[in-house]
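Annotated sample (chain length 82).
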Amino acid sequence: MLFSNEKIKEFSSKIKQLVDSSPISELETNIHALFQGALTKMDLVTREEFDIQASLLARAQQQLKVLEDKIAALEQANTPKN
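Output written by the structure step:
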């Protein structure tokens, strides 16, 4: 049994009306709100913010290494030689 284009369009239209009038139509809005809330709770940062913090950390680590080397040199200079 073949369906005519008119019957297919009518059937499609009825399905669309059914979906639009059902709670399914609210599903997209609810899912969007759910994801938005979950992402907000995760306290995520942008890639730019992450890169800035990573470069600041690398600089702080370099400075720490320089200071550690200076302390080691000072301690070695102050160690009495026998």
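Annotation: Residues 1-43 form one domain.
Annotation: Helices lie at 5-20, 27-41, 47-77.
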